[in-house]
């Protein structure tokens, strides 16, 4: 395991929505100090941050020169930011990352950061999870957020103060925020080297010892309250330091002014961070060089992916055409059969269009292959549609795109032409039953999390998937089955065939598709 090297870090106080001014300040300091990363406390953004400011960042009219991390403060987030995150993930623009209400990450320089955003509301904190709606607009943290973050880290920063932070300190008592018990418990569990909170004034406590099993000798924590960015009273609003790894080479003697920990109770049970909330380390297949994942990619690699041609276990006998950027294969357990299709199409004809590159979403493809892959997917779709049309049938084509999916693909299913006018109504009603409504539009360039369906009557319906939405992966198949009247075939496992039958379907498909095959 690689050991992190000492890194220069900058922490600044709450900018109260003065985003560009704060980032300009950071950029200027970085020119002379060469920081590894920066943490912005409190309200870097607020609900009132102008959309024009967010657009300036997203359009890269202002460039952030190094990784900058921030969380949700007490003033909320502008809709332009939350909608961007719902669609594209936590990177607002290159090098600017929102860690939300609860975030745990490992930076590119291999240090760990835990962040607890929002405010403390005792009622919401203890609210049962089945009554709590998780969303990007949430402004208070929950018990499970504290549990998730309760693991060792190098830096902890929170929007709320811990209670009793002045206990066991020999410094003069000051009028500081009273704090709360959950954040104090989090500090006890995390045992960070550095703990930062936004503060009305600058406050630096003496270092304190962490008393827990298996904590390296000499390990101490340092707590800082950082005053608001460029405050009118001249309080210190920035703190720069060198972060050292917790290895024998760098762990020195306990400072002479070190105290016992003010956080003596640890009432929050330890819990492993969930895969939905932890930001993966840079050696993980789902991270980027910045240390913070832009999109949560699949943990399944090409060698284990059943849609990747490099997988030695792939069912090669199901492949019907291979292009430059995509290929087509028949599915295991097709929805349709020769008996459910129009008489002119006497075989299942259900087919998958699959990008050759391993990606959970089209928007995760490299810039060099994105356009050519999308173009070829559409070319296959149009070719199959022409084949269907020539045999009294139309195409339903749908796609589920999720950052945490495995391998994106398009399902293409034939329906008799006589049923095509009913498709819109069936998909709309199925959405209503599932608790959402479609937008009639195509996806935006590089849109990430969505369900999309191309209907035979020309409509394109899109449903944007929220980060934690439990979307029915069989939604498209279920709605199409209702159109055809074969709801007993929704579960593909009940529609499996022998390999001999599959091979016959492949030969039939190739024969009918031959006049339209461009590969």
UniProtKB/TrEMBL annotation:
Gene Ontology MF terms: RNA lariat debranching enzyme activator activity
Residues annotated as signal peptide: none
Residue span, Cwf19-like C-terminal domain: 296-427
One GO term (biological process): mRNA splicing, via spliceosome
Segments traversing the membrane: none
Domain Cwf19-like protein C-terminal: 445-519
Coiled-coil features, chain-numbered ranges: none
A single Gene Ontology CC term: post-mRNA release spliceosomal complex
UniProt cross-references to PANTHER family, sorted A to Z: CWF19, CELL CYCLE CONTROL PROTEIN, CWF19-LIKE PROTEIN 1
Protein's name in the database: CwfJ family protein, splicing factor
Gene from which the chain derives: mug161
